[in-house]
Amino acid sequence: MQVVWIVLLVIIAVVFAWIILGSGDSGDKRKKEPEAKVNVNPYENLRNQALNMDHKTLGIQIGFDEERPFGVIMDWYVGNGVATLACFSTGDASLYFSGGTTMIGGIGIPAVKELAPQYVMNAAKVIPLCSKVNAFPAPDPQTVKFYILTNKGKYAGSESMAQFQTGQSSWFPLFIDANTIMAELRKKHEGQPK
Predict the structure, then answer these.
(1) How far apart are CA 61 and CA 70, in angstroms?
(2) What angle do CA 49, 54, 59 make, to 5 degrees?
(3) 22-56 burial, b if ≥16 CB within 10 A, otherwise e?
């Protein structure tokens, strides 16, 4: 009978300790609210990453004695925000909106993979219209700003939307190429057939 009392006391002690010390949780038996998700807008980070990309990071070999573009970043106002198209000679392209929407992975779209390198190479034609830059402000309203990344530096040039509407701008072919790439990105991201 004494053994039964000892076993019973051990069981009571274990249960009591379990109640006092907890069962592995905080001891708060109330229903826990899920933690609120923090919506982090990726726009600034993605835009800065694109603008500061290096040709070596992309695996692009360019001779020391030549200057060649390897990326084009195009910014323009859309509604109350800014849109950024980033294209690289690797065939990748992404579209970012300052409101937080992104369309990334253009290299996985055959048409984009083919168009993006041509777009970047065509940017070489407008480098004489640009200034070398180290800062990358957003464009003025009603303006499209192009940043051309080369192995020898970064260049910026801009054009008013009004000039694109006339079709008379030296930037017009680059603007049309960019719109073709964006259309392909949107098709994929809107679930439309390619």
Answers:
(1) 10
(2) 115
(3) eeeeeeeeeeeeeeeeeeeeebeebbeebbebebe
3-state SS of the chain? CHHHHHHHHHHHHHHHHHHHHCCCCCCCCCCCCCCCCCCCCCHHHHHHHHHCCCCCCCCCCCCCCCCCEEEEEEEEEECCEEEEEEEECCCCEEEEECCCCEECCHHHCHHHHHHHHHHHHHHHHHHHHCEECCCCCCCCCCEEEEEEEECCEEEEEEEEHHHHHHCCCCCHHHHHHHHHHHHHHHHHHCCCCC
pLDDT in tens, 121-174: 999 999 999 999 999 999 999 999 999 999 999 999 999 999 999 988 999 999
pTM of the model: 0.78
Query: What count of other Cβ atoms lies within 10 Å of the Cβ of residue 188?
Result: 17
Chain segment 78-130, per-residue pLDDT in tens: 888 999 999 999 999 999 999 999 999 999 999 999 999 999 999 999 999 99
